[in-house]
Amino acid sequence: MNIRTKIAPVAALVCAAFLSACGTSENADVSRGIYDPYEENNRFTHQFNKNLDTYVVSPLSDGYGTIVPEPVRNGVSNFSDHLSVPNDVVNNVLQGDVGGAMHNTFRFAFNTVFGIAGIFDPATAIGVQRVDTDFGETLHKWGAAEGPYVEEPFFGPSTSRDTAGFVVDIVIDPFFILLRDPSRYVGGVAYVLNAFGDRYKFDSTIDALLYESADSYAQARSIYLQNRRFELGMTAEDLYLDPYDDPYAE
Question: Is 156 in a helix, a strand, or coil?
Answer without folding.
Answer: strand
